[in-house]
Amino acid sequence: MTIRTKLTVSVTLLFAVALSTLGLIFIRLERAQLELQAGEDARIIVSTVDRAARDALVQRDDLLLLSYIKFLQQEFPGLSFVDVSWTDGERTRTHHIGRPREDDVDAKREQILKVKDPSDPARVVTLGIDIDEAYFKAQVDARVGRVTRDLMRLFGIAILVAAVFSDWFARSLTRPLAALSEVAGEIGRGKLGVRLEWKSNDEVGSLVQGFNQMSQRLEELDAMKRDFVSAVTHELRSPLGAIESFLNLMAAKMVGGRPSDPAQFQAYFDRIKTNVGRLSGFINDLLDVAKIERGKMECTLRTMRLQDVAGDVVQFFEAKAKEQGVTLQTRLDPNLSPVQGDPERLRQVIVNLVSNALKFTPKGGAVWIQAEQFRENGGRFLEVAVVDNGRGMDEDDQKRLFQKFAQGKNTNERVAGHRGTGLGLVIVKSIVEAHGGKVGVKSQVGKGTQFHFSVRMS
Ligand SMILES: Nc1ncnc2c1ncn2[C@@H]1O[C@H](COP(=O)(O)OP(=O)(O)OP(=O)(O)O)[C@@H](O)[C@H]1O
Ligand SMILES: [Mg+2]
User: Fold this and answer.
1) Same domain, 22 and 48
2) Are residue 278 and residue 314 in the same domain, yes or no?
3) Distance, CA 303 to ligand 1 centroid (Å)?
4) What is the pLDDT of residues 408-443, one digit of tens each?
5) How far is the CA of 56 from the centre of ligand 2 (A)?
6) Is residue 235 domain-shared with residue 259, that is, in the same domain?
């Protein structure tokens, strides 16, 4: 059974149950009201007969009383039988008006009225009155029956309207679900990133929104996977290819088991070393990311001088920067107070940030490291920034920077050195956070970039 049918049936059933309950209560109340009314009618009949007897006594006319009672019987068939005993001194005349009840064996009347003439106590009228309850009951039953039939007709129409309305309601509720299942099918068939256009401020609206986000995320993950495969292939293949060709060249330069041109040989050897370094760097990055994912990125903090580490890194990249025509310097105060950090890991952070800055800074540009102290929540921190006046990046790229394998659009332009894999900043962020610090970026396309991170001071 579809959700639409289930909803329609249950809403209609609920409506029917609610209406029947209300109807039953109404019919009961109506019956009670009618029964009360019948009792009141009976009392009015009795008091009318009583009044008529008094008038007849005053006028000394028993025939007037009899004809009035007969008239009353025609008007109110509930007045089934009346015994009239007219006593005038010694004389008593008795009359029976109407049909006595079938069980009227001992001629006991339901109501006995004794009316005396106030001016002559010898004249008395005794009235035995029978009220036909069956008549009143039949009247009540007939009225209740009519009301019930009217109500049933009304309920029939109301339930029909409820069924049509609940079907419309169920359809409008399930329409986005049906559309969602169709879009989910498309995603299942491999068409990632499809979106469902649906706007409403309710749970269905947020479900569709969540679904669209999921679809977008799946598309991003798919793109990430493709980027990863291409980056990995590239990062493995190019140094391996270079190593292979330098080895072939070296083999060609061997004469009698010795290098024919030792200087050239040394140059090839250095290139092989660089490529081996690049390969092992990439493998280390992959291992670090695997550690981060297992939550095992550990740092052993001790008191250390960050300016020394920054100086080392600048020295390490000096030749590369010169070759690129970029000035690289550290502007850290040599007397800076020490920080609490893991020197190896913080070196890795600065290496990643400086290598990025050099990668995205064209000839004639500058890259520098600066630092500033600040206080937060009673603690003293150092904010270290690696700044460049290179290509910069747009806001879209800035948002994705710290995701695995995420590389900005600026990597498509010609970058200095190898293209990279988009792991550097993931590692940076995780190391800084393991130190209890924060990492951030400010960048403007064409103007440059500043990456900064904080670390606690001793
Ligand atoms: N200084 C910078 N200037 C401009 N863009 C940058 C800068 N630093 C990082 N980015 C952008 O951030 C992206 C992610 O950097 P990240 O260091 O994580 O990866 P990568 O440098 O591309 O590769 P890897 O570091 O793994 O070799 C870069 O691809 C680039 O688009
Ligand atoms: Mg990098």
Assistant:
1) yes
2) no
3) 30
4) 888 876 666 677 888 999 999 999 999 999 999 999
5) 123
6) yes
Tell me, yes or no, whether 282 and 302 share the same domain. no
Q: Are residues 451 and 349 in the same domain?
A: yes
Q: Round to whole Å and give the CA distance between 228 and 282.
A: 12
Ligand 1 centroid – CA 285 distance (Å): 14
Q: Note the pLDDT tens digit of each residue in 120-137.
A: 888 899 999 988 888 889
Residue where one domain finishes, among candidates 237, 261, 291: 291
Question: For the CA atoms of 441, 445, 447, 450, what is the dihedral angle to 10 degrees?
Answer: 10
Is residue 334, in this structure, part of any structural domain at all? yes
Query: For ligand 1, is residue 407 a contact (CB within 6 Å)?
Result: yes
Summarize pLDDT for 34-92 with one digit per residue, the tens: 999 988 988 998 999 999 999 998 888 888 899 999 999 888 888 888 999 999 888 89
Nearest atom in ligand 1 to the alpha carbon of residue 406 is 14
- Do 305 and 432 lie in one domain? The reply is yes
Nearest residue (by CA) to ligand 1, atom 28, is 407
For residue 248, count CB atoms less than 10 angstroms from its CB and return exposed for 0-12, middle for 13-18, buried for 19 or more: exposed
Binding site membership of 421 for ligand 1 (Cβ less than 6 Å): yes
Q: Give the distance (Å) from ligand 1 centre to CA of residue 240.
A: 23
Confidence of residue 330 (pLDDT cuts 50, 70, 90): very high
Helix (H, G, I), strand (E, B) or coil at 217: helix
Q: List CB-based neighbours of ion ligand 2 within 5 Å.
A: 356, 420, 424
Cβ-based neighbours of 405, under 8 Å, separated by 6 or more: 224, 227, 228, 231, 421, 422, 423
Nearest residue to 179 via CA among 157, 156, 165, 197: 197
Interior/surface letters 115-141, b for 16+ CB within 10 angstroms, e for the rest: bbbeeeeebbbbbbbbbbeeebeebbe
Token representation of residue 415: 């970058």
Last residue of a domain, one of 291, 318, 341: 291
pTM, 2 dp: 0.59
Range of the domain at 361: 298-456
The answer to the question of residue 60 being in a domain is yes
Residue 429 sits in the same domain as residue 391 = yes
